[in-house]
Amino acid sequence: MLSFGIIIFAINKAIDYYSFVTIEKQMMEKADLSELSFREVLSQHRSSSGEPQTKEIVRLALEKLKASGKEVRIYDSSSQLLGLAVDGIIINEGKPIVFAKNIDKALGGSYAYTVTEDHLLYFATPIQDQYYQNAYVYEFVEDISYFYTMMDQIRYILFAGAGGFIVLITLSSLWIARNTTKPVKVLLGAVQSFSRQEFRRVHLKRKDELGMLAEGLDQMGKQLHDYIQYQKQFVSNVSHELKTPLAAIRGFSQYLYEEETEDKQLHKIYAHLLQESDRLTRLINELLLLSRFDKAGSDELEVERTEMNELIQQVVINMGAKAKEKGIAIIINRAEEGPQDESITKIYANVNPMLMSHAVANLVDNAIKYSDNTSQIEVQIEHTSSEVVIRICDQGIGIAGDELERVQERFYRAKNANTANGSGLGLSICKEIVARFNGYIDIESQLGEGTTVTIVLPRS
Ligand SMILES: Nc1ncnc2c1ncn2[C@@H]1O[C@H](COP(=O)(O)OP(=O)(O)OP(=O)(O)O)[C@@H](O)[C@H]1O
Ligand SMILES: [Mg+2]
After folding, report:
1. Is the Cβ–Cβ distance between 428 and 290 less than 8 Å?
2. Histidine kinase domain: from which residue to which, for each copy (predicted)?
3. Does 450 sit in the ligand 1 pocket, CB within 6 Å?
């Protein structure tokens, strides 16, 4: 727009300049012709009477030139007005406006002109006598408003054309931008949902490079989807297959552990065997839970209106023993309303109580596992008009900023997690459970200071 404005400005100036050059040339030609006529009068008069007589010369010259302009004037070499004709009529008296500078310049030998505000052009040119002296100045006045009207028309055409051009350029740029950005947005949206492992079909109704790119993305999405499904199915099958033999191993280890009372060393080994088979059973159960999520739609889960204060209280009681082992205290901060003696506000959410307890227990388990002995864990329950907010805050080892996202992936464990055992599945299971009930999880953490995991659920 700016460069276009500069071009229009330059064209406008150029039109002004060349138009004036043209009009100046026209006036000079006219002045030349008038000068010829004037000199003719001069020479005729000299040949008839010998000595030039100014009055007579002026009269004759005016007679000849009176029609050559709106006004015609003749001055002598001392800038005195000798004669004047207006609209072709010779006038003896009158006090016209005189541009003295122009007359002086003409007496100096060159032409000069002035254009007034009402578009009248005063053009003065010198007339030489037989001795090549600038004896007279001939001045004519021309109305050049026709020229200004013409210029205005040219300008109007120029600006109207430029306006039309700008509108056309803007519309076509918008059209081009829309046509190229719209499909790019579609592709970008597809790539973003792929990164969230949502593999939807990508289709663009076009045969150009963007269309080909969409087709390629679509193929890629399909293959990735199939591959991930295959992997999940594989893990699910293996977990299923392992479940029965593992139950047998656990049963036998339990038996051996309980039966062996004499050999202390052997008793210790059986205890270890029992502990490990418990860990493996938990892992297999979690893997099966995840694969159940992968397969099931949310409608297959039993959901009921559950009071969250009660649920949290129960989880904390269940985890109490584990916390006590490390000398960790768990404090519950419930949402209260009104004076102390009033009953605790009941906060309901539509969840599956068993799964929800599992999720909260997982988070409390993490808080215990990744905290030092004798530290404190706080479980807060708050609510807004539409949400239930549960926070589990610990004073543990914390999670590095660049790992906050990754710890929610399956099997990912942070670099500082070797202080405790784990398989890296707990958080991803929590995330899936909470998402099933239309909620989400948020983690805030500071390395070495502590972690706060927040569950937000819609209130019912
Ligand atoms: N409260 C916490 N404090 C510090 N680090 C945490 C906390 N909670 C989770 N993490 C980090 O996130 C990782 C993933 O947690 P997640 O619960 O998924 O796995 P895990 O505890 O290692 O194993 P699992 O829960 O399957 O037994 C952990 O390994 C740990 O590095
Ligand atoms: Mg865990």
Report:
1. yes
2. 237-460
3. no
